[in-house]
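Input sequence (629 aa), recorded before submission:
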Amino acid sequence: MKTEATLFSMFIETHKKYKNKIAFIYKVEEEQLEVGYEKFFEDVLILSRAFASKGIKKGSKAVFISDNRYEWIVTDMALVSLGAISIPRGSDTPTQELEFILDHSEASYLILESETLYDMHKEMLSRLKLKTIFVIEAEKMHTLFANTYSYQDLLKHREIYDNEIEEFKARQYDIRSDDTFTIIYTSGTTGRPKGVILTHINIMHNLKVIPDLINLTHQDLWVSILPSWHIFERAVEYATIDQGGCMVYSNIKTFAKDLEEYRPTLVATVPRLWESMYTKINNKLQKEDPKKAKIFNILVSISVRYNYLQRLYKDELPRFEQESFILAQSRKVMTILRLALLYPFNLFAKKKLKAVQEKFGGRLRLAISGGGALPEHIDEWIDAIGIRIVNAYGMTECAPSIAGRALNCSTFGTLGLAVEGTTLKIIDVNGEKTNIGEIGEILVKGDQVTPGYFKNEDENQKSFTKDGYFKTGDLGKLTIREELIITGRSKEVIVLANGENVDPSRIESTIGKLPFIIDAMLVGHNKKGLGALIVPDLDYLKSYAQEHFQKAIHSIEHIREDKNIVNKIKQDMNELLNYKKGFKRFEKLQNIHFLDEEFKLGEELTNTFKKKRYVIERRYREVIDGLLK
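Predicted structure, token format:
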């Protein structure tokens, strides 16, 4: 019987090819544990058997709340093996949001990482009629009349019989490529998460194209730090399994140490982590020896300049029109002269900067950045110290790959070419295809694109064109070689530098309850945190300042200059954005800025008084950059 290309058939094939290789490395406290593909296979089979005994089968929906750990991938693959549908989230999911997801997804099962999480949501869970609740990390929990099981309760019997192995493998024939394997809830503009349906076709398209783009093989070793439930991280882990590679589970606290200890060949992170490394390295140098820090920055500047000139010579910078032969040759001649002058300085700089590469283990051949746009100065800095950066563009709805500056593209300052089998189209406000270099909304079509949102026909109607293109909500343009450049977002959802999605409307409406706020706009796209542009009611602000600080305020500028007042107002806002009301830790305001004038109808506001976010962001770009450094 012929098998279809699914995650489970991939898993079976990997076990057959690489059963003697190490699959995962992780630490429990200080003890290092290594898991081979043979043990991984056995763990998935045993948990799959236990899930099946509690009624999980093809089509069953299981909400899965957990952070990174080896048990995550075992649980995920056990659900895949049964043809069940996983609905994953992180442990920081608020109770209110978890209740919505459980109800909206029509899930019958819930898997929680710890007993602490179970206790946190216990009151809410008592109101729901779930068939079974499973807890990964807990003592025995099951009692005669309870529907709750710890993994300890489930996995007492670990013996595997020969017939079970064959029956387990045979399940691959029951799973179809167009079956849904997961529903991932992402933040929507209405304040409610949207359930993105992903099928085996969607994810297997990524597994087909990713290895060639980064030359992924069984010899590669990753250090993993991204949340396992994010589709970016999931795709990386699935691709690693597919190629028989090794994954080291790390965390924020140990990431820097793990890079030096495990010496990965590949890492996948979000822009915020690169910014953090950039800051830490520079701050450490500045603290230890300001002179050395200055020299280091000069060396980086030399390397950045030399790399730019090399790309100018090789025609590896974005171009939007054909260049004449004479102009191209004169550019090359001038560039060669500049390169020759800079060559000895660059040679010295590269030699010295090689020491920074050791901070990443010294074997890193590629670093992949996704989940948000990489700031230009960070992109140049990573490149300057000699690390090849793959700047990738994707989204949950595309499982996730859309484009990437991978090994098939050397044009710096772009997001590279669309991945194989993908069609990109840039359209203007009238729905017409734009010319090269013109900005418009990015549309995408390919096997990786979601079939739609679960139980959300309104969103499906808005998100797809009549000819089947998915509207990404991002603004961009194409170069003459069809490389993609992102210029902004047309959708309201803010994507932070760590890849987290934030719905601005909920936060804006919440802080708008304060009497001295006429209007507010949340900002922070590709930034480390959130800020707010506030249109204030000056009369109310005067009263507020007098009441809390016994100060007379005469102007908005006066308010901005008084840090005590600004911090107190920000504190009041953040108290409204609390966990009990469904807000997450990253949905706090880092900074606020009071505007001198209201948003104008027809300029910053549409005729229906909706904020034109990209217009406001463009107008206040310097303010926003200063607000969220």
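Checked by second reader. The two ends are 58 Å apart (CA to CA).
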